[in-house]
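TA notes, week 10

Several of you asked for a full example with nothing omitted. So below is the full record: structure tokens for the whole chain, then the designed sequence directly under it. When grading your own attempts, check the secondary structure regions first.
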């Protein structure tokens, strides 16, 4: 056999060939950056292989940030083109790339997503975007029936790195690739749905368009229509979906799918209607506050008793320690306590229908955040466009929509509030988007809310705003003057200091957080300290030693199921680090309208994924920070955020994080021990189809008879000695509480 034939055979065995696509599960890989690495004839034979479906940090290149190259050689059979109905474009589907890529075919650039640090306008990540690059099939740069080389230059800013998300492949562009099927709803209840198919190519596309409405729980198609349609180039066709007679609050799947006539390819989209599980809040008084609150001696105390029920409510608190007083009409307790100790209070809330009582403990000592902080943060909705008005509107909505009555209390401004210059005295001041920030602080306090702010130990924040580097004490003093109750302290450009100091010891990671710890300690005000450095140097092992109340365990969350899985589900080993005053933080919530900018969109999570997201975060005893525009809260999201029995799992005073007890490909079961001896259990269906899951109590070490309560529905669903079975929607959850009987 000649040499060329042998190498062709080798290549063919590396590239799995199906009829229509050629997949690349591996590539040659090298860290660094040299422009000759893009050439097809560059000799990469000494480079090691790497998998293309998983980030490089998961494959031995731990903590490597910066440039690296992937090179893939493959034979492109002309049969691919001959067998295609459309023969005009070759299409590369490269999966996601963390953070920015420049892609070359045989040395010629065919695409780029994101901006490199050297690009005009500077670095901008596009880590969560699928790369699809199309090139004309008659391009002289494509070598049909010969070896081709795809070279991908990647720039990774921080964590992760490189190709991931799916196995890349090449194929001929087909009609269905050029169709966009969508389903949209208006927000007015009951929602009306439209579906459309848009042809983004210039050529006519023909096929059958089917729309169906399905009850997935019993696998029954309730209604369906289908018709033959031709869609001219660059045209969109839309249909209103007939929801008449379908119960407004049921979980229904709407599926719109288009089957292309010549290839048989199907392009479809489905949505699940936002179904509400939790009954409306009762008119009877109910106290929803956490059962414990920590404060330091002589620090200003501010706590609003969270309670629901028909207004007006009358609030009462017996045995308040000396120095505290309650405003009976609002339930706001303020003052200062000078003597350390545990004070047992009896709260009482009444209205014309009745009254509710609750034991409550104020612990005057050194510990703050005895239950995970609950509130709002501006980042996931407004990003750097945050301003005074946007903060106030979400805070006002906390009151108007009643979130404050369910225990939501922090209003936190994330990045983007700082002025580029400090005052002559070196003081940090807000930029023009904010007026009087001290006045904003007292406005929040007067309403019983708390005030949070954001900074970085570096010279600049991630968004390029002024950081606290070498101004830590000054900044902490300013925050205290403004009435700040919470600081998120984000590593960001501290990376430059860290790199310059060439010290990668544990102490070097801790140093910036210790500096701010001391600055906060020097204030005569309690400031909850939230460490944000994405889990570096196993922060959960030492966050407590720098007085951190919570620490981010991961990179930033996005509103996708993959992101919820990787931030929330993928770190079960951290459970032992959570305790009162110290919480693992898998990042903020991605329900409601999010966007990280001035433009908001509804979360891309399905309703089931949202139930799972909130359930898991509560089981994890995570800080709960709403990341959406609260002033635009829809009924579904409001319901999701105001189920007191679910929130009580997060706020449980034992402060234990759930343990992952069972993990199979399709099912995960997490169990959290609660202060009253009962267990909160999340049974998650990780698969894409409905699944009947049976939980055998013995499999999670439980013996005895239990009352089973469905926490989302707030109903008891039975008593059992041995098992619980439920039919769980795709990516959905059954969240239950087992109480011994
Ligand atoms: C990131 C952080 C985000 C947000 C952002 C602001 O590093 O993880 O939560 O704070 O910076 O620029």
């Amino acid at each position: 056999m000649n040499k060329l034939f042998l190498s062709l055979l080798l290549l063919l065995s590396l590239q799995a060939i199906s009829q229509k696509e050629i997949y690349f599960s591996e590539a040659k890989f090298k860290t660094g950056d040299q422009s000759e690495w893009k050439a097809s004839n560059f000799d990469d034979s000494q480079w090691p292989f790497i998998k293309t479906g998983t980030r490089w940090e998961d494959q031995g290149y731990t903590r490597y940030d910066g440039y690296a190259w992937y090179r893939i050689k493959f034979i492109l059979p002309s049969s691919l083109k001959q067998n295609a109905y459309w023969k005009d474009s070759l299409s590369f589907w490269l999966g996601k790339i963390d953070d920015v890529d420049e892609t070359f075919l045989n040395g010629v650039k065919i695409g780029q997503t994101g901006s490199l640090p050297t690009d005009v306008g500077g670095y901008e990540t596009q880590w969560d975007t699928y790369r699809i690059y199309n090139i004309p099939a008659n391009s002289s740069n494509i070598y049909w029936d010969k070896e081709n080389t795809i070279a991908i230059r990647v720039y990774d800013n921080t964590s992760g790195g490189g190709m991931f998300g799916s196995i890349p492949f090449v194929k001929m562009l087909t009609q269905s690739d050029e169709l966009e099927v969508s389903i949209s709803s208006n927000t007015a209840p009951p929602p009306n749905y439209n579906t459309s198919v848009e042809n983004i190519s210039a050529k006519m596309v023909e096929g059958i368009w089917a729309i169906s409405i399905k009850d997935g729980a019993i696998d029954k198609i309730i209604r369906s229509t289908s018709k033959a349609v031709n869609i001219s180039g660059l045209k969109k066709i839309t249909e209103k979906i007939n929801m008449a007679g379908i119960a407004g609050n049921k979980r229904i799947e709407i599926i719109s799918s288009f089957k292309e006539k010549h290839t048989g390819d199907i392009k479809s989209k489905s949505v699940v209607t936002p179904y509400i599980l939790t009954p409306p809040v009762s008119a009877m008084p109910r106290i929803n506050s956490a059962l414990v609150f920590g404060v330091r001696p002589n620090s200003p105390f501010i706590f609003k008793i969270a309670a629901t029920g028909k207004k007006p409510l009358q609030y009462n608190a017996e045995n308040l320690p000396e120095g505290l007083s309650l405003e009976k009409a609002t339930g706001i307790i303020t003052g200062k306590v000078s003597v350390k100790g545990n004070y047992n209070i009896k709260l009482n809330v009444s209205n014309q229908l009745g009254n509710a009582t609750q034991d409550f403990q104020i612990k005057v000592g050194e510990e703050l955040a005895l239950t995970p902080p609950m509130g709002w943060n501006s980042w996931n909705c407004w990003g750097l466009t945050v301003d005074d008005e946007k903060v106030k509107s979400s805070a006002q909505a906390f009151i108007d929509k009643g979130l404050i009555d369910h225990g939501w209390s922090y209003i936190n401004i994330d990045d983007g509030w700082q002025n580029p210059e400090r005052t002559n005295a070196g003081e940090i001041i807000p930029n023009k988007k904010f007026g009087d920030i001290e006045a904003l602080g007292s406005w929040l306090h007067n309403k019983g809310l708390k005030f949070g702010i954001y900074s970085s130990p570096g010279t600049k924040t991630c968004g390029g705003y002024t950081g606290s580097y070498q101004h830590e004490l000054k900044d902490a003093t300013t925050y205290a003057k403004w009435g700040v109750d919470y600081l998120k302290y984000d590593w960001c450009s501290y990376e430059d200091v860290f790199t310059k100091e060439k010290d990668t010891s544990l102490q070097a990671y801790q140093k910036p957080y210790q500096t701010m710890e001391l600055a906060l300690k020097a204030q005569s005000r309690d400031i909850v300290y939230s460490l944000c450095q994405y889990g570096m140097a196993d922060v959960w092992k030492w966050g407590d030693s720098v007085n951190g109340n919570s620490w981010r365990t991961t990179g930033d969350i996005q509103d996708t199921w993959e992101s919820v899985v990787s931030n929330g589900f993928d770190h079960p080993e951290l459970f032992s680090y959570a305790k009162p005053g110290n919480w693992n933080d898998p990042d903020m919530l991605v329900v409601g309208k999010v966007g990280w900018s001035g433009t908001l969109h509804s979360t891309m999570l399905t309703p089931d994924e949202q139930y799972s997201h909130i359930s898991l975060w509560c089981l994890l005893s995570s800080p709960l920070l709403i990341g959406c525009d609260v002033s635009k809260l829809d009924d579904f999201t409001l319901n999701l955020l105001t189920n007191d029995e679910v929130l009580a799992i997060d706020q449980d005073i034992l402060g234990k994080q759930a343990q992952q007890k069972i993990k199979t490909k399709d099912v995960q079961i997490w169990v959290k021990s609660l202060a009253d001896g009962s267990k909160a259990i999340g049974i998650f269906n990780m698969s894409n189809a409905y699944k009947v899951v049976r939980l055998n109590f013995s499999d999670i070490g439980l013996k005895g008879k239990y009352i089973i309560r469905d926490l989302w529905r707030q109903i008891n669903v039975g008593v059992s000695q041995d098992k619980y079975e439920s039919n769980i929607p795709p990516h959905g959850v059954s969240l239950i509480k087992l109480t011994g009987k």
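DSSP finds 13 helices and 46 strands in the chain. Use that as a sanity check on your answer.
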